[in-house]
Design a protein that fits this description.
CATH topology of the largest domain: Pectate Lyase C-like
Strand order of the largest sheet: 4-3-5
CATH architecture of the largest domain: 3 Solenoid
Number of strands: 5
Shape: elongated
Number of helices: 9
Strand content: 5-15%
Order of helices and strands: EEHHHHHHHEEHEH
CATH class of the largest domain: Mainly Beta
Structural class: mainly alpha
Distance between the termini: 59 Å
């Protein structure tokens, strides 16, 4: 055993002829192209802490860090794997939270149930890579940085982060689609479109339209939003008919201070029924809009026909997957 001193003054033991704890964590040691898969497997299985290890450009092809018989896998959290070769690696349940996989070659690797929370995935190659059940975190790292820069007023920096996040989402969407993981592909498509919107100028028409599409249907990935919007719009229009009045067999149905609570509730239910009929463009003719209610009815009929068509498109898109 001997001692190795880091730049910050800390000391630790240098083991295994230069391939122990200090070798893996020393950022000054050039690991480019070195076949270190077997050595890394050994030190990890021996119980050494590999969190924060510096593995830039290391050749880790075929690395096997599957922790058999345990629900929790090994940890390479905060590890620097910039341009590392992880082809055909078996990393089931691996913890790569806050790690850098920037431009890493992860082709045909197994990342089932891995933890990628706040990991740098920019430029990483995931072709034919198993990525089911991965923990991606609430926000991707570059997405989080973009939001933070936006809050601090660093607009140009925020746009750069959002553009990088869009690139990551596009890459992962394509990989998911090729593997038939359409739910995951939909998740990344939604994020991709959201990141694209964040790069548009604030208060621009293009950004406003994009936001409306998000609200209406989540860029085609949230059919439940179409239903919720429809129900909310029907209720609001029904309330407006209740206040403005509609004609029911020649009698005006509307809110009245002279009417009892039960009579007003009955009137509101009739105007709500009329709102449903108008939204779905059925038009039975038993109730008729009068006065300003006609404008509300025209707007509701147009919105209803558009929304119903939108729901069919979104629903079919989800079901055909």
């Amino acid at each position: 055993m001997c001692l190795y001193r880091f730049k910050d003054g800390k000391q630790c033991q240098l083991e295994d002829a230069g391939k122990g704890f200090c070798f893996w964590h020393d950022p000054t040691v050039d690991k480019a192209g070195k076949a270190l898969a077997k050595d890394l497997e050994q030190v990890v299985r021996d119980g050494h802490n590999m969190e924060g290890a510096y593995l830039e450009r290391a050749n880790l092809e075929g690395l096997n860090l599957v922790c058999h018989g345990h629900n929790k896998g090994f940890s390479l959290s905060r590890a620097d794997l910039y341009r590392a070769n992880l082809k055909n690696a078996h990393l089931f349940h691996i913890d790569l939270s806050e790690a850098s996989l920037m431009k890493a070659d992860c082709r045909e690797a197994n990342f089932h149930f891995a933890n990628f929370d706040r990991a740098n995935l920019l430029g990483a190659k995931f072709d034919r890579c198993k990525i089911e059940n991965i923990t991606w975190g609430k926000e991707l790292l570059h997405e989080e940085k973009g939001i933070d820069a936006n809050k601090k007023g660093y607009q140009d920096k925020a746009y750069d982060f959002f553009e990088q996040s869009e690139e990551i989402c596009r890459n992962l969407r394509k990989v998911s689609e090729k593997q038939g993981l359409f739910e995951l592909a939909g998740y990344f498509f939604y994020k991709e479109m959201t990141m694209r919107r964040q790069q548009m100028p604030k208060l621009s028409f293009q950004r406003g339209v994009s936001k409306l599409v998000d609200i209406f249907c989540g860029y085609g990935e949230r059919p439940a939003r179409v239903i919720l919007f429809s129900l909310g719009f029907i209720f609001i229009c029904g309330l407006m008919y209740f206040l403005l009045g509609i004609s029911d067999a020649g009698q005006i149905t509307a809110f009245s201070y002279q009417s009892s609570a039960l009579e007003n509730i009955s009137a509101f239910l009739r105007t709500l029924y009329f709102s449903v009929v108008t939204f779905t463009t059925l038009g039975y003719g038993d109730l008729v809009p009068v006065g300003p209610s006609r404008i509300v009815a025209a707007i509701e009929a147009f919105t209803g026909s558009f929304t119903l068509a939108l729901f069919v498109v979104v629903f079919v898109k989800k079901m055909t997957r």
